[in-house]
Design goal:
The protein contains 9 helices and 10 strands. It is an alpha/beta fold. The longest helix is centred in the first third of the chain and has 18 residues.
Amino acid sequence: MHEKNIYIENKLGEKLYVNVLEFHNDAPNIVYIQTPIGSVIDLKNCYTPLVKHGFNVFAIDLSGIGQSEGKVSAFSIETLKNDLDACVAYIKENYNDVVHMFGGTGTGGVLGQHYITGENEIKSFVQYGLANYKDVSALGNSTMIKLLYPILPLFQKLAPNMKIKFKPNDFNGKHADKENEWYEQLMRANPKVMDMSISILKTLLDILLSKTSNIKNRPNCPVLVFAPMHDRYFTMNYIQKYYNWLDKPKKMYEIDDSHLSFVWHAEDVCREACRWFKLNTD
């Protein structure tokens, strides 16, 4: 494996940080995205196992996030598309045109789902988190969120740098003590890590609720859905609803653990993701 850190430009000329784990120049490629609260390097162990299965990995910090240029206050559906388009174009120009995508965390899966459901050249998709259109139950208080959504543009205009403090959903299920401690350690190390930019919140709600959201439509490539059976955000009913709606080819992989199984079981998660990618590599 050869590792390098590169910067690619999006259409606005902003430099986007990409951690590249290179297996071979001719190997198939994976674009990896995660929850936009920090750099991909912070969760590097969650995607490093992908490379040993014969793939080049491109873990990207979206604009305004982590080590990438840009303003988080400008984060939107449009910047998401521009950034991922730039990464895919770089891969095709410098490697080859076999590109898969992995949304490797809860919000990473939602962002990736929106991207791959639009116009793109992705061969197949693996998602850890997911979204059902008009169903915001995974975010907690559905009634409050739907009341807040129409006035978010006003808040965004008046206070573009505003952040809203979130906390993980309450959880008492399998490995709850272990998972709650992980979140507590994360917040002790960075007390503001769960403070979500109003622009990121609006983008998530645009994906879930807006009339122009891509997720109204089914993905147009093969999809593997990871289903943690004891997830604090995504219930099995929520996951099953989405999975039943998908067109074939599709697959669900159940994990008998909690939400952070993408951390606890990174080797297994990456192995199963790569099996799906290999199955769908031309």
